[in-house]
Write a structure and sequence with these properties.
This protein is α+β, with helices and mostly antiparallel strands and 364 residues long. The chain is 39% helix and 20% strand.
C-alpha cells in the first residue's frame, strides 16, 4: 500500500462535519489590502522556513532541503498580486498545496536546479518532486513555548487549588443549606469535584439573595465557577493546520505520493507532526480535548483550525537562538505606508533522533 493509499483509507472515516472530501474546495478571492500585522506575520513565517532550511542543510550529511512552496514578495494591494494569487488558486486545484520545503536524499538532489525550485512550473519538476522523501509545511508562532507552558501550568494549578478550597469551604460551612430538597443537587455537584473530574464539571451558578448568608454562598459559588473555568482553559501551545488546507494538502499527496509534515517553529523550540497522524487524530473523538481541539481562530480570520497539542508531537529542534529583527518601511499605492518587522539569522539546533523518528528515516 502506498503512502497515499494509506491516507485515502484514513479519510474514509473522518467525520464529514470536520472535512467533507466529497465536496470540492471553495476557491477564494484575492484579498484587497494588506496590513502591517499581516506582513509581519508573513516575514516571521518566511524566517521560520529559512531557519529549518538552514538547519537541515548545515546539519545533515545525507539529506538536502530545497525551497519549493509557492511564495512571492508581493502583497495585497500591489500591482501583480491579483495575477499571482489567481495562479496560486489554479495550482491548488491542479496539484494541491506545495509544502514550503522538500527534503531529498543527496543522491537524488539535482545540483542544476539548486536549492530553490519555488519559481519553477509544476510541469518542469513533477518527476523530480516525486523523488523527495518529505514535504515540510513550516509554520511560526510568536511564543517562547517553555515560558508559556510553565506559566499556564502554574495558572492551572493555582486555580485548581483555589477551586478545591472553595468547594470544601462551602460543604463545611453551609451544609445545612443543602438540606433543602431544591438545593441538595448542588451538594452532589460539589462532592463530585476533584482533580480528576474538574475538567468536566459544569453547573449553573445559583443566585440566592434572600439573606446575607445566602448572598455569601452565592458569591462563593461564583468564585468556584470562575476558578474552575480558568483551570479548564487550554494550557498548551499547538501545531495549527487549517481545516481548509486539509483538502489541498491531501491533493498534493495524491499528486506526488510524498509524505507530508507540519513543523511549528516557536522562538525557543520547534515541533513536528506528520499529515498522516493529523488525519488519524481527527478520526478519534476520544482524543479531542487532550491531543487536539477544533475551533475558529480569531487571529486567523476566524478560520477553523485544528490545534494539536505539541506535547503529543515530535520535537524537531531542542533549542532556537532568536533572530535579529528590524523595522521596515513599505510604500503601497496612493502613498499608503506600512511599517512591519523583518527577521533574519537565528539558529535551530535539531533534535536528530526525534527528527529521524518523525521522518521515518534511519540516517540523517
Amino acid at each position: 500500500m502506498t503512502y497515499f493509499d494509506e491516507l485515502r483509507e484514513i479519510t474514509k472515516i473522518i467525520p464529514d462535519t470536520i472535512v467533507d472530501f466529497s465536496i470540492p474546495r471553495d476557491r477564494t478571492s484575492p484579498p484587497t489590502q494588506a496590513s502591517s500585522n499581516f506582513i509581519t506575520n508573513k516575514e516571521q513565517g518566511d524566517w521560520a522556513e529559512d531557519l529549518i532550511f538552514r538547519a537541515i542543510n548545515e546539519t545533515s550529511k545525507n539529506y538536502v532541503a530545497v525551497r519549493y512552496g509557492k511564495s512571492d514578495d508581493l502583497v495585497a494591494g500591489e500591482i501583480g498580486f491579483d495575477e499571482f494569487y489567481n495562479e496560486f488558486q489554479d495550482e491548488l486545484d491542479t496539484i494541491g498545496k506545495r509544502p514550503d520545503l522538500l527534503v531529498f536524499r543527496k543522491s537524488d538532489f539535482d545540483e542544476k536546479l539548486g536549492h530553490d525550485i519555488s519559481k519553477l512550473k509544476h510541469s518542469q519538476i513533477i518527476d523530480y518532486v516525486k523523488k523527495a522523501i518529505a514535504g515540510l509545511e513550516v509554520r511560526s508562532s510568536a511564543f517562547l513555548i517553555d515560558k508559556y507552558e510553565g506559566e499556564m501550568q502554574e495558572r492551572t494549578r493555582t486555580h485548581l487549588e483555589a477551586a478545591l478550597i472553595i468547594k470544601d469551604k462551602i460543604i463545611n460551612e453551609f451544609s445545612d443549606v443543602f438540606e433543602h430538597p431544591k438545593k441538595k443537587p448542588y451538594l452532589d455537584i460539589l462532592k463530585s469535584i476533584n482533580e480528576e473530574t474538574i475538567n468536566a464539571i459544569t453547573f449553573r451558578r445559583p443566585s440566592w439573595n434572600s439573606t446575607e448568608r445566602l448572598q455569601e454562598l452565592t458569591q462563593l459559588f461564583k468564585n468556584l465557577k470562575d476558578n474552575i473555568s480558568i483551570s479548564q482553559k487550554r494550557d498548551y501551545l499547538s501545531i495549527t493546520p487549517k481545516v481548509e488546507d486539509i483538502k489541498v494538502v491531501y491533493k498534493w499527496a495524491e499528486t506526488f505520493n510524498v509524505p507530508h509534515y507540519y513543523f511549528q517553529v516557536f522562538f525557543d523550540k520547534s515541533y513536528g507532526i506528520s499529515f498522516k497522524n493529523i488525519l488519524t487524530l481527527i478520526t478519534d473523538s476520544d482524543k479531542e480535548g487532550e491531543h487536539y481541539e477544533i475551533s475558529k481562530d480569531i487571529k486567523n480570520q476566524n478560520k477553523t483550525t485544528i490545534k494539536i497539542n505539541t506535547r503529543h508531537t515530535n520535537q524537531v529542534a531542542y533549542k532556537i537562538l532568536e533572530p535579529e529583527h528590524k523595522s521596515v518601511r513599505r510604500e503601497m499605492g496612493r502613498g499608503r505606508l506600512l511599517f512591519y518587522v523583518s527577521f533574519e539569522k537565528g539558529i535551530a539546533y535539531l533534535d536528530i533522533d526525534s527528527l529521524k523518528a518523525l521522518l521515518n528515516i534511519s540516517d540523517f
